[in-house]
Amino acid sequence: MSFTITMRQGPARLASRLPQLTKSSFRTVAPTRSFHQSTPKSANFFTSRTTVASTLLRSAPKNAFAQSSRTYMQQTQAPAADSASTVRRLLTGGAIFGGTLIGINALFNRETREDGGMPPHERQYLNSTFIHTGIGIGIIGLTARQMVQSGFVYRLMVTNPWAVAIGGLALSFGTMLGTRNIDPDNYVPKYALWTAFNATQAAFVAPLVAFAPGALIARAGLYTLAMMGSISFVGATAKQEKYMYIGGPLLAGAAIVAVSGLAPLVIPATAARTLALSENLWLYGGLAVFGGFTLYDVQKILYHARLAERGIIKKDPVNESISLELDFLNIFMRMVQILMMQQNRRK
C-alpha cells in the first residue's frame, strides 16, 4: 500500500506505521559519516595501490605497449635521419659551390693569364691575405657570440638607436683608417687597431645573429663562402688588371644601395611598392655590388703584390684583408635576411 493511501486512512494509522517507515528509510539510504565517527581500518591497506594498478592495466588498450615501443623505435632512428639530412645539405652546398664556380668562371674568365699562371710572390701574398681575412672573420664571429651571450647586444638595442648607429659608424671608420695608416712594420698597434675594427663589426652583426637560427646562420655562411670563393678564383686566374676598371662603377652602385637602405626612413609606410622595390635593391643589388667588389679586391691584391715585389710599396696583408672582410660581411648579412624572408613565407 502506498504512502498516499496511508495518509487517507487517518492520522492514527499513520502514527502506528511511523516506526516501520523510519527503519525502511534508514535501510535504503547510503551510510554517512559524522565528524566524531572514526573510519574503519581495512585489512588490505597496502593492497589498494596494487588494486588500482591492476584496474588500470585491465582498462588500458591492448596496443598501448605496441605504441610505446613504436615511439621508442622512432626516437632511435632520429639521429640517422639527422645525419642523412646533414649529408644532403653538405652535398647541396658542394654542388652549389661547384656550379657557381664553373658558371662564373665560364662567364667572366674567358681570357686567362698569359704569363703562365700566378707567380710565387703573388700566390704567397694572396694566401697571406686570405689567412688574415679568415682570422678577422673568426674574431668577428666569436665577439658577436660573446656579445649575445653576455646580453650586451640587448642593452645596445634598448638604448638610443641613433646614438648607437652614429657611434658605431664612427668607431668603425676610425679604427679602419687608423689600421690602414699605421706602417706594417709596427705590428703591435696595427694588430691592436685591426682587432678593435673587427670588434666594431661584430657589434653590427650581433643583433642579426641574436634573432636568426643557428642552422640558418650556417647556411648563410656556406652560401657566402661559395660565392666569394668562386669569384675569388675568377679574379685570381683572370688576365692581369682585367677587372681593375670596375672600381668606379662599383662605388656608384654602393652609393645607390646605401640610399635604398635609408629609404624606409624617408618614404611613408603607405608606399608599399616603393618600399618593396627599395628592399629588393638593398638585398639583391647589394649582393651584386659586393660580389663585384670581391672580384675587384682580389685583382687589386695581386696588383699590390706585383708593386711590392718591385719595392714600390710594402706588403700589408692586414690592409688587404679589411676589404675582403667588408665584402664578406655585406654578402653574409644579405644572405641571412634573404633566408629569413624565405623561411617566413613558408610559414
Which structural traits does this protein have?
12 helices; disordered N terminus; mainly alpha; 347 residues; single chain
Your description of this structure?
The protein is 78% helix and 0% strand. It has 12 helices and no strands. The protein has helices spanning 3-8, 11-28, 48-59, 64-108, 120-150, 152-158, 161-181, 187-211, 214-237, 247-261, 272-309, 317-346. The longest helix is centred in the N-terminal third of the chain and has 45 residues, at 64-108. Residues 1-12 and 21-79 have low confidence and may be disordered.
Condensed summary:
By secondary structure, the protein is an all-alpha fold. It has helices spanning 3-8, 11-28, 48-59, 64-108, 120-150, 152-158, 161-181, 187-211, 214-237, 247-261, 272-309, 317-346. The radius of gyration is 39 Å and the shape is globular.
Write the layout of secondary structure elements.
Layout: H1 3-8, H2 11-28, H3 48-59, H4 64-108, H5 120-150, H6 152-158, H7 161-181, H8 187-211, H9 214-237, H10 247-261, H11 272-309, H12 317-346
Helix pairs in contact: 4-9, 5-8, 5-11, 5-12, 7-8, 8-12, 9-11, 9-12, 10-11, 11-12
